[in-house]
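Here's what a typical entry looks like (Calcium dependent secretion activator 2):
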Amino acid sequence: REEEERKVKLQIYVFVLRCIAYPFNAKQPTDMARRQQKVNKQQLQAVKERFQAFLSGETSILADEVFGNALRCFYEGFLRSERVTRMVQSGGCSANDFREVFKKNIERRVRSLPEINGLSKETVLSSWMAKFDAIYKGEEHLRRPPPPTQLGAASELILSKEQLFQMFQQILGVRKVEHQLLYNACQLDNQDEQAAQIRRELDGRLQLAQKVSRERSLPRLVSADMEPLYLEELASSVSLLRANLEALPVSRGGAPLKQRLKRSSLHSSFLDLGEEGPVLAKADVLLSFTLEVVVVEVQGLRSLAPNRIVYCTMEVEGGEKLQTDQAEASRPQWGTQGDFTTSQPLPSVKVKLFTESTGVLALEDKELGRVVLSPTSSSPKHAELHRMAVPKNSPDTELKIKLAVRMDKPPNMKHSGGADEGGLCFSHLFAVGQRVWRRWKRRYFVLVQVTQYTFAMCSYREKKAEPQELMQLEGYTVDYCDPQPGRLQGGAFFFHALREGDLVTFSCEDQAERTLMASGIWTAGSAKRSAVCTAAVKKLRAAGRKRQNRVLSLPPSAWREVWTCGSARKWRSWSSAPPSCFDHAALFTTLQRCTLQHRMNDSFSCLGWFSPGQVFVLDEYCARYGVRGCRRHLSYLSDLMDYSENNALIDPTLLHYSYAFCASHVHGNRPDGVGAVTLEERDGFLALRRRLMVLLENHITHFRYCFPFGRPDGALKATLALQERVLMKDATTPVPPEDLRNLVRRCLQEAARLNYSQLLQYAHIKGSTIKERRPLRLRTSERRLEEVLRLGELCLDVLQQNQEHHHANPAAANPLLWRLQAFSWWPELMTEHAETFLSLYRANMDAALQAQPIDSWNSFPLFQLLNNFLRSDAHLSGGSFHRHLQDVFVPLVVRYIDLMESSIAQSLHRGFQQETWEPLKPLSGVMVKLRLKQINTLFNYSSILPMPLPHPPSFSLSLIRSTVWPEANGSATSEDLFWKLDALQMFLADLRWPEPDFAKHLEQRLKLMAGDMVDACVRRTRAAFDVRLQKVGGSSDWRLPPSVCTMFNVLMDARRRSSKLCVLDPGQEQLYHSRIDVLIEETISDMISCLVTKFSTVLHGLLSKLSRYDEGTLFSSILSFTTEAAKQMPAVPNPGSDLADAYIGFVRQNQDVLRAGVGEELLLQRLFDRWFGASMEAVCVWLTDRLDLQLHSFQLRTLISVVKSTSRDLRLQGLDAGRSNGSYESVCRRLTLEEATAAVKAGDGLQG
């Protein structure tokens, strides 16, 4: 069997050789898409290592953090994916796929970045792609020289014949020596032989068609009415090939035909194909020759003086005359070349030698000699000496000239003469015929090719451009014959050309000449049998052994004749087998299968597409040997489906092209002009249609693995288009949209189950929910929740990839889609697929949530994960799974908020009962670093509340950040309250509840709850403030406790944070939040008033003591005497100043306490301003009551000290004492007046 397959492949290779050597139907296409080099396992591993090295910082490529994150996502999500490994194994992955996937990923990232001045996003994309290319190629590629281009790497280019030969040797497994033997056997270097082979092939196909028509041995057709059409198409195919062959140019130098031969019509009959064409005219076979005449030197010139000037002229009969340069007679050498063009096969070339005439009356130069040559195309090309004819009485009788005459043979001149024993060329044959050359005579013959299908045997006379007689060669049989010495005299070796009604006999003097001429006439005449290997040829071979020089002088054609008849006879069965005897459909199927196998195994990611060279050879084979287009595409489609079923990546567009061709042919649309449909073609098409239907459904079901990451680009779109075409009953009736939609829906539902089961295996959670309940009970609830969370992340990754690579509407930018809205329902079906996929996950999620404790809040990260993805997807937002997710978590959220509200209220109540009002500022730095659960543990509410406190979730990054304000220095209870309220609202914001009404309800509830809590905090703070002030005295020794400052800070924090915690929508803000602001403002004002009143009590005590010095009282006289006595004592430097000093110290120390404890500057200024105003008002009232009295010196001295110190301290606090304060100005005027009066009485001013 292997030997039979080898013989079949050798026979196929023979036909392929002829298609490559002489194509006349097809050309190598230049508009095919270039295929990329495929990535193998080793290259994939190297790429992974390069990206890992970059992510580890081991390369010198600089990049920012954003690019690093994008590359890390690409590495984790793509390079390490199992589907990429499958792509590489299938041979459909290229470096361009890696690049396009990364580009698609970063485009979404870059588009979401904010605009940067002076840097466009296109520039960022270009920079990132350049860095990606550098990482992908690696740094070592810059130091490594590029590898040499191999044949496989050049297969995407236009290949030469030698490269095509080498490629198909590999495809068919032909060895080099076998190729050489077949090459020589088929005479592939002889273009004339190849053209003759085509003519013989067409003749054989014509005879086969006539036999089929005569014997009615037609293949089984779909309808009996197609039999005449089938026969007519057989004739048309032969006519078309003949027309293509005749359309090829024959000669570059031949004159254009005056009369074009009539081409066969595409619908001509078989009898028309056998008729002769019109008779050729003599003007149709004009030839064009190029002659090169080189004059080298002249010898034997002795009669002239050495200094005489000589020159030569040259001319061709009927042409212009040329002249060489001048030379001296002592050295007549030139080496000058003259170029001529003539249409005479036997031209006359004249070369003359002249010397310049020295006579005065001489009109012409003197001719010294001449030579006349009659060269032919087979004449020697080297320079030779020729004796010149000299004038009479010339002393130079031995005058010779050395000339080289080269006459090139035009391309359409095939044979003219042969070689003699010495290697010289003859140009004449003896001939006699019945229609032409009726006299046995020696003539000069030339075999001329007029067109690719028309040859003529012409005889010429010397100096004539047109042939004397010609014979059009059509259907002649050539054979050797014995000499006829009695009847035909002349020549030694005879052969004749025979046709019905005509016989032409030729003879020549040389056996090799006979072999050449017979072979030429046989080739031109499309003879049905070649000249036999007669005894003369055998003698020639025997003579060649004896005389090696004779054999070596044979032309290549003679060598082939000898070789064919001798040692290479065993290869003749392949080279000379008539192509019409083979089933070319079967041979082409084998050729195409081997070619596809070679293509799929080369270094390119071809996806089933042939290379340009392979397409060229296959097209030429089908056209030349009559392989029907439907059979070709059926076998191609079957081979492609074989590879696709074995997990190889095949371009669906390629399947679509072949299927559409076959469907159009079977349904009678004639895609290639062939209308007859055989029963074998129809049955094969129907079988492939059923097989293709199953394959396409499998591809749609496994779209994540058949088209991983959307590669090949547009493959899923093409698959849907092909699926629609396969469902069509014929080529014109469209498929009902609902049928295709239901089919795709069914495939996608099955795809959802398949993808989820594979995802479970990947996540190491085997079995469905029902099967899984029992083993899951053995695990803890936290472990089950972690597994479901991990499974949810994987599910969202799958959905995200589907959305990026498969969710887009495939109706855009696909040439196979003839309706603009062809697949507008595809996004809807992908949404249903996603819902089905999530419904499978729903069972696992519900089971895990039911296993959680009733007071466990660890499931909120799962909601946040799923909801953030679903709400961002326009197709899944508000879907069935999204609604179910809300229904599951609504009770949890409501219960969590209820418990948190109760917990915060109880902690607020307990906290204020145990509040010490110590400032919390030292604790703030610790709280910044604590997580939510740690902060809750810090205050240890478990000992206060009867139930465990629901901790705010710690999964949100925004919640992990501390919400304690940097300037906050309130109490522990207030800071804990504000932090919890803020954390609870941030928790709700992070949930991003999708249903707007419920989200608004929750927000309003939290805002109202925050308002109630802040209200309670303010009222409890005010109550604690009143209690603290009631416990303090009114003497100048009293100092403000720091707890009062903390209370002010609590109120300021409440006012500042209520704008965030309690703000509702604009309608309710006026009704509720304004009430909180009013309450806080009223409380602050009341507390300031109370504190100022408390401070004023000390001043009133001071003024009461000064009242004892009023003028006219008994106590005033005693005190005045005591004061005067103290002045006389040297130990008392400033008697009576202790009272003022005590009050001034009281004011300054309490101002310092307020400045250090209260963190709000505006509050301090407001407090100090009211305190100063109340103090000045009290002094002013006290002085007004004593307008009729003169102040005692002690009173005056004390008040001056108090007023000056108080105003000075107020300015140090940043306030102006005289700003809109009438009491202060009145006091200053009264004290100034009293001081002046006292100075007049005492003779000097008061101290201070």
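The two ends are 135 Å apart (CA to CA).

More examples are in the samples folder.
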